Description:
Chain B is α/β, with parallel strands linked by helices.
Amino acid sequence: MNAAWETVIGLEIHAQLATKSKIFSGAATAYGAAPNTQACSVDLGLPGVLPVLNREAVRMAVKFGLAIDAAIGPYSVFARKNYFYPDLPKGYQISQFELPIVGPGHVDIEVDGVKKRIGVTRAHLEEDAGKSLHEDFHGLTGIDLNRAGTPLLEIVSEPDMRSADEAVAYMRKVHELVRYLEICDGNMQEGSFRCDANVSVRPRGQAEFGTRAEIKNINSFKFVEKAINYEIERQIEVIESGGKVVQETRLYDSMKDETRSMRGKEEANDYRYFPDPDLLPVVIEEAFKEEVKAMLPELPDAKKQRFKTHYGQDDETAATLTASRQLADYYEALVKASGGEAKLACNWVTGDLLGALNKAGLDISRSPVDYERLGGLLKRIADNTLSGKIAKRVFEALWQSPDTADAIIEREGLKQITDSGAIEAIIDKIIADNAGQVEQYRSGKDKVFGFFVGQVMKATQGQASPGEVNKLLKAKLKG
Amino acid sequence: MHNCTIAELASSLRTGEFSSVELTQAYLKRIEQHQALNSLITVTADQALMQAQAADDMRAAGQAGLLTGIPVIHKDIFCTKGVKTSCGSKMLDNFIAPYNATVIEKFHAAGAVTLGKSNMDEFAMGSSNETSYYGPVQNPWHTAAVPGGSSGGSAAAVAARLCAAATGTDTGGSIRQPAALCGITGLKPTYGRVSRYGMIAYASSLDQGGPMTRSAEDAAIMLQTMAGFDDKDSTSVEQPVPDYLAELNKPLDGLKIGLPEEFFGTGLNSDIAQALDAAIDQFQKLGAQVKSVSMPHLQYAIPAYYVIAPAECSANLSRFDGVRFGYRCENPADLTDLYTRSRGEAFGKEVKRRILIGTYALSAGYYDAYYLKAQKVRRLITEDFKAALTEVDVLMGPVSPSTAFGQGEKTGDPIQMYLSDIYTIAVNLAGLPALSIPAGFVDGKPVGLQIIGDYFAEGRLLSSAHQYQQVTDWHLQTPEGFD
Amino acid sequence: MSLTADTVKKIAHLARLGIDTRDIDDYTQDLSGILDLMTQMNALDTDAVTPMAHPMDQVQRLRADTVTESDQRRVFQAIAPQVEAGLYLVPKVIE
């Protein structure tokens, strides 16, 4: 990056709230329905119909506010934001302007080991718009209003970020948080979590902000990074070649990896916000707040800290295991199911399990191996029934079938042979059959020891306890 | 039978003197005879007769209430499932509502019969019914005069005995003023008393539906059905509905009437003032006490209203964009053209005027000077009313500065038209209930008396009016040619 | 307070309201007159007054989060100007 310039970034994150019904109507919010089958009279803005606020949306917004240590309400107002667009059925969006439900709060991020606090200016409730489908309908555009009225929490940050990396770290942190709180499914491909980035540059050391451009509707962490970096370069280039950055809305084109001006929204908007007379002020009572507070889960930072002190994990491991609430919950349930094998559980989750899930493209919530069955496997490793190698085979079987580890071990006869009598007999036979190698070993060729281990393992199909094999072989080969 | 009140009709239906089907047929015939009034946009004859038959069956099954089988007309602002709901506009000339307004549902549940949908000022914006896409309505008392507005069709239909009663809506006087100009009883309830769901919005914080009837007793019967909490309307108030009929006979003895000085100033026609004096004398004879009160901010009601109502309407009417329902222009060149021409071609001049004013008042740089200022003035006006109503039980005054004016008389001058709302709009800003009752005639045209009460004091207003109507017969007068 | 014809055109565009050019002057005059009426409010000192958005000091009621609406697309689109494949059609949207 150019050392003469400093970047200033603020993000507006839109998180769709995971309610069953819309923010102001009783229509379903489920993703993927046939066009306009989940748009009721209120969502369509038909004449005479009226909005009524969804309690759950309010509760979720309060939950978020409490989690970022923000001021809540107590008195917030819905306003109409007026503009004409075909995906906006009423010609205004019901949003919040002067009095948002969540006031100033903060989110802590860490980039390359450096901690930073990012201010959250506000978070407000609003309704999502529908979608314009640009496939060609004889030169016309199709409008699907299923998404119209889906509750959104718009989380507005302070212009506190100074690089694309910080912006991505902040966005990831908020993403993790909303999923921990179970207020948003975080599905970025479906648009449940997306952001607008306000980007400007200024000569390093200058106090005033430069003119910003707003990059609209970015729906992946990778694109946020790329879009911001592109935009920084673009703005520096514009200024350095004697031009001026224009305040405008831009769109990130991921195919071309560039941002471009949105001509359709070029015109300066005058949104004419005013309090929506169809809705009354929302008052958040102390009791409501307390009720939500009581239901607040352990938050990511606190959980990570606890994993470090309680399970003795290093920073990276704790971060991996607490990356999502589901994974952390799985881990802790696994520790319990395995009879307290915290270290073993940690190795298996971060190793084999996440590896397999990753390969299969699955989320922990959809893991074919639940913590009960994996716990059963860990128990058998801990009590020496299984060798590490055989355990991996059992894990694969767990992945494929619904059986328990014990049932698989029993069925496939995978129990480790720890009976020294049985192993001795096998060793005796191998020594007798391989006189030449015995000679070599005894004449000082230590390397041949490995050959004998291999032979024993082959004869026992890997089920002999390696410790026992080593001990017995050494004794016998001595002669 | 068309000259009877609801109370009388209900009694005849009960005794079997005639059936609801016969009554409905009689009204439908009158509607046909008096088409020249232009008081209805849509006549729903077939549905009405089916509803009447159902009402007669209900009665036979012993399930009849006071409104069962009573033929009424609804202002064409209430969405009525399967029926054109035009709101007096070209914009909705093709709009067949896919659902019922809560008010309509309530009438259906009561077994009432809907004869049709009444004419009105376009989107309820007007004081003379002359802004309707469907043409002006005649005042039955004087066919060259306006019936008032915006519920002019309902008022004219009740006055001409084309129905037993009608519904209206009142944003700045749209029930009371046409009631006064047509010599009927009209009640605007407390804001939040009657559900606004399915009632096409003009100015959401001011709109309120109410009854337009021949007598206070009928208004009580209608309100009993219309009022009540509705969980589909966030501004609907969760407050039990009292028994309005039981309250009607409450004596006037000791009733404290306040006369706002500002209501009886120079702007009032002296003949009307005289008629009102006589009416107030009558109240005193019945045991009421009269006292003068002052509400210094009343004079600012018109400017405040003409900021707030247009501001709300400018957003409320944005949904009429030619995309999902209603009028769409031919061959739009692009999106902006679709919006601009659909709205430009389908909205009338007064609607456009108010959208423009409201858009301007909310636009960047003007919000504080107009909209915020108006909201503050609204508070001051409301405080005036509250203070006055701690001293007295009800306030009385004129409804309109003049009697019914001639068609076309004020259409060229919107401000003159707005000023005719001077006595009614302050009540909407405060959200109070008020009614208009016939209180005499000037030059053969009816004069209305306005009675304003405290929040949810509809019962008090109706009983005061009822007691007055027990000793006067202004409300029983029928316009010539309509008896 | 006097408006110019240009301001009226600008507002009309903001409101997406087609106005006959012949009527612009009428609207300009009407609107100016109405704005004059509004300026009467300036006689009042309202610095200490809280704005009033609703007739009554009530608070918003909250609805339970349940799905109460079912698919009525066929009914709603029967009254639509132009639909295809379940979509409302409009002139091309340019982004």
